[in-house]
Amino acid sequence: MKGIARGNEEVQLARNKIGKPYVWGGGDCNGPTKEGQPKAGFDCSGLNEHVTQYNDYRKWGGTSYSYNDAQLGDMFYYSHNSGIGHGAALALLEHRAHVTIISSSEQRVKSVVEDVGNPNLHGKVGNVREEESFIELLRSLAPIDHLGTPLCSTASTLKDSCSIIRGPIAEADFDECKHLFGVKFWGAAICGKAAAKYDIISSGGSLTLTSGTGAMNPGKTASIGGALNAGLFTMTQGLALELAEKRIRVNCVVPGIVSTELWDKMGTIGKGDEQAQKLDAMGKKLPVGFCATGEHIAEAYLYAVRADYATGSLITIDGGGVLK
Fold first, then answer.
1. Is 274 inside a domain boundary?
2. What is the pLDDT of residues 2-14, one digit of tens each?
3. What stretches of the chain show up as alpha helix (H) in DSSP?
4. Counting C-beta atoms within 10 Å of the first and last residue's C-beta, which end of the chain has fewer, N or C?
5. What is the pTM for the complete model shown?
6. Backbone phi, psi, residue 258, to 5°
7. Which structural domain range is residue 103 located in?
């Protein structure tokens, strides 16, 4: 996986040393193997030779707990060529997690799994807007250590659905608005319900939602999209309290401007070179001086998965955009 930090060999070696001995956030290489090998987790072969399983014996609320899987039931709907979900999945694979992606498009699932070509990446077909069948799918994947909720929809009407994030309310198509809410907002709620009712997430695991900085400063043309993202702020904090008794952390990644395929779908800043130039210009106005890619935002998801002292957190990663 290429990227600013990941392209540096010394940084990569350091990350490998940090990542291998842990199951997303802590633990020593001294745990006995359960019956056989785990169905998901780190590839322990060749590491310390005598170690066959990593266990986590941290304490939360005075009670010891452990888990051996490192599976992320990844709800992001994305293209294998770009996107926040794609960056998060690759970053987790880089840290030897077993990742499961779910999409309503069988073709997309097959394409992503084949093109990435990592044996730790698996795909399932499911529609988050169909509550009963989607929860059954999640239950079939349980126990899941780290679950991420939907970003957006890849329906044929994606252009209209995503345009509600930025567009005058006078021109809003509320049927399209309801579709996007059904995926991003209610999809997150369905994942929370499954975690609360059916214990699909392991004790000590996490649920990560995705919002956007439009919730903080929506502007006059993003009242609906801003409200959608703001609702996820409240859901994050409420679920963090509700799932705490199950020792499940809940956090929310809040990205700003990101160069992804959604810009092509929306068509608001052109395509090709024109789009690249406009994104570059937007990025130069940020304190960091550049526009993020999915790989940059992936760091926030790694933090959400591994930072076991973080729950109810709104993890803003926007290049300093909210400071303007």
1. no
2. 333 333 443 343 3
3. 9-19, 84-94, 106-116, 131-141, 158-163, 174-180, 186-198, 223-242, 262-266, 272-284, 294-306
4. C
5. 0.73
6. -135, 140
7. 9-256+292-314
